[in-house]
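Need residues for this backbone.
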């Protein structure tokens, strides 16, 4: 009889063990999914082409920034938007991403950089050829053969020329709500 009870206890603890295994497995799966979820798409305001994703945004201060503000692109992501000025006196609001889609374009420029130690070239939309921003690459690796930034480089996108898909969808939703009422 004692033996029976012990057996029952072991059965229960085995079930608890198995359930906890599954619970852990499920949790691990959830975190994996969270890592691959695309928060939002950055798209070309002119033509709607995909430029980058919100997950790839990161902050790096330019010592030449005239001003800087945190802009909330999505519920979860706030991005540093800096105002910079080119040698012609034209001002741009820029934010940074690790990767973006631009056409292949000629050599890197070393002078008048907003990020010391980095050479730059323009980033032009592959579809409509609008200026989307600039590519930056450490001076040492900014060679003629290196068409795009390496993992050590980055992209600065022009805030006014980019729109998020979430924002576009929210406009469409609003329009639909207005129509329905
Ligand atoms: C932006 O937000 C970060 C993190 O909350 C903060 O450290 C930084 O000072 C903010 N920058 C500006 C310009 O508000
Ligand atoms: Zn475009």
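Answer:
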């Amino acid at each position: 009889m004692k033996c029976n009870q012990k057996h029952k206890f072991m059965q229960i603890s085995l079930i608890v063990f198995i359930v906890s295994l599954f619970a852990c497995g499920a949790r691990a799966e959830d975190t994996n999914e969270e890592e691959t979820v695309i928060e939002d798409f950055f798209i070309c305001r002119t033509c709607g082409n995909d430029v980058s994703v919100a997950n790839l945004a990161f902050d790096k201060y330019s010592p030449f920034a005239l001003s800087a503000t945190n802009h909330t692109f999505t519920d979860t992501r706030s991005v540093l938007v800096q105002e910079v000025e080119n040698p012609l006196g034209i001002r741009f609001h820029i934010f940074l991403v690790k990767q973006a889609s631009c056409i292949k374009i000629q050599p890197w420029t070393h002078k008048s950089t907003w990020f010391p130690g980095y050479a730059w070239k323009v980033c032009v939309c592959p579809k409509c050829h609008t200026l989307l921003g600039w590519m930056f690459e450490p001076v040492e690796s900014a060679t003629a053969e290196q068409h795009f930034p390496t993992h050590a480089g980055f992209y600065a996108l022009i805030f006014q020329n980019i729109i998020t898909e979430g924002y576009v969808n929210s406009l469409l939703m609003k329009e639909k709500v207005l129509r329905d009422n």
